[in-house]
Write a structure and sequence with these properties.
The chain is mainly α. The protein is 48% helix and 11% strand. It is elongated and about 105 Å long.
Length: 463
């Protein structure tokens, strides 16, 4: 059997990180089984759907490497077909027109609230025999849900789930204005797209029971369903769009690499033995729904940063520089062509202990900015002795014909002996003079990363 999966976001807001994980699981299941992965933009909510959100969805999926097959499917282009199916359900007796006014529905909801029970439409118009059809109300079309017995779904993650049909209301499939609802459109589109597997958040479980009844009424093949637990914030609450770590952009702007985030999302609620790091090829080969847990996963920023540090350490340095350059152009000051070669040759140590591209960018500030400023706190550390050390080193450095670590070590060791100090006693003043801070890369790396004349110029300013 060919596996055909889909990801179906609504462009009514930025794509949530939980949605990205759902897309990833669908993509992996399709790729593992040499199937198809489709993207469907569910844009039938015309008031809230916006092109900017559609673009953000497409950009997010492209950034993390989830390429869909064929062109994206636009749901609003298929409304005519959705309406046709609603009419067919009406003719076959699986749906009915409901003429309840908004006031009546509001009254029913308030009554349920007072009784402390969930709202369920009271099925007033299910049997219209003794009811007079009002002339001034456009009806909605409701699906005639089963009333007795239980419905069962064999979920690929949650196992067998059973619910009493009495709790599934006669849900609306066509609104008063004739527009189809999510429940109808999703089923019709999944059928037309020949979707075989639907992986989505477990907040959709009740929707699955509603939609299964539409499939059965139309005698269509029912896809297999897998409901994955939701992602919770670090505080343990359901992750919302108000959280600072809810969208892909929140991670891109601090310098998280796409491979690292994809690896993190793969492991967020899924496991394969005790393996932590997965290449893309390994992800496809090893992924299965049996490894998905049943409990909610908690977002862990420290784990994301740890994974990102691993990827920064092991990614090809040419690619790492390319990522850094894009990051700087998008969120910082672009790297000037005159400093590009210096950064490229120094990337090996600039990435040391860096957890993000932001860290690398900050480590490179002394290279990116020819004119450095010494902070007030660090300038206090440059006492008369420190200044003499800098001046002596400056004098020796200017004479050096061959610049390498061996020659620099000789000079620094001589200064350690002369001033009866240690490596920090010499290295710290030099670092402050060259970088503007006592913190930064190793002193040999700093000196060898800059042009000789620039080192001389910076040291000469300390007097």
């Amino acid at each position: 059997m060919a596996f055909i999966c889909r990801f179906a976001p609504s462009p009514t807001g930025p794509l949530h990180i939980g949605g990205v994980r759902t897309a990833l699981f669908n993509w992996l299941l399709a790729k593992k089984n040499k199937g198809k992965f489709y993207l469907r933009i569910e844009d039938t909510d015309k008031e809230r759907s916006k092109d900017e959100f559609k673009k953000q969805i497409l950009d997010s999926l492209a950034w993390i490497g989830l390429n869909h097959d064929d062109k994206e499917y636009i749901q609003s282009l298929n409304i005519k077909k959705h309406k046709e199916i609603a009419e067919e359900l009406l003719k076959k007796g699986f749906a009915y027109k409901c003429f309840c006014s908004e006031e009546e529905i509001k009254e029913q909801k308030e009554k349920c609230k007072k009784q402390g029970i969930p709202y369920l439409y009271n099925r007033k118009w299910r049997d219209q025999e003794n009811l007079e059809v009002p002339k001034n109300i456009n009806p909605v079309i409701r699906f005639k849900s089963k009333i007795s017995g239980n419905s069962v779904v064999k979920d690929l993650v949650q196992g067998e789930i059973s619910v009493a049909n009495s709790i599934i209301e006669d849900f609306v499939i066509l609104r008063k204005d004739g527009s189809p609802t999510y429940q109808l459109s999703a089923v019709v589109d999944d059928h037309l797209m020949k979707i075989t597997h639907v992986i989505r958040g477990d907040d959709h479980k009740i929707n699955t029971f509603k939609q299964k009844q539409i499939y059965e009424a139309m005698k269509w093949n029912i896809p297999e369903f897998a409901h994955i637990p939701l992602i919770h914030s670090e505080k343990g609450s359901k992750l919302s769009k108000r959280d600072n770590s809810s969208t892909i952009n929140d991670y891109i702007k601090i310098g998280i690499l796409s491979d690292a985030l994809r690896n993190y999302l793969l492991r967020l609620g899924w496991a394969h033995k005790d393996k932590e790091i997965f290449t893309l090829e390994e992800s496809i080969k090893l992924f299965d729904l049996k490894g998905v847990g049943k409990s909610p996963s908690k977002l862990d920023m420290s784990r994301i940063l740890s994974l990102n540090e691993h990827y920064i350490k092991h990614v090809d340095e040419k690619d790492l520089y390319k990522f850094l350059k894009i990051f700087a152009e998008k969120f910082k000051k672009p790297i000037s062509s005159s400093r590009e070669t210096l950064i490229i040759k120094s990337i090996n140590f600039l990435k040391n202990k860096a957890k993000t591209l932001e860290d690398i960018y900050q480590n490179a500030q002394y290279i990116l900015n020819e004119n450095i400023k010494i902070s007030v706190e660090d300038s206090k550390l440059l006492d008369s002795n420190s200044k003499k050390i800098i001046q002596d080193f400056h004098a020796e450095f200017k004479k050096m014909e061959i610049l390498n670590k061996e020659n620099l070590e000789k000079t620094i060791n001589n200064l350690i002996s002369k001033y009866k100090t240690n490596f920090k006693g010499v290295g710290q003043p030099l670092r402050i003079a060259l970088v503007g801070s006592r913190f930064g890369p190793g002193i040999y790396n700093i000196i060898l990363s800059l042009p000789k004349e620039e080192v001389v110029k910076r040291l000469s300013k300390i007097n």
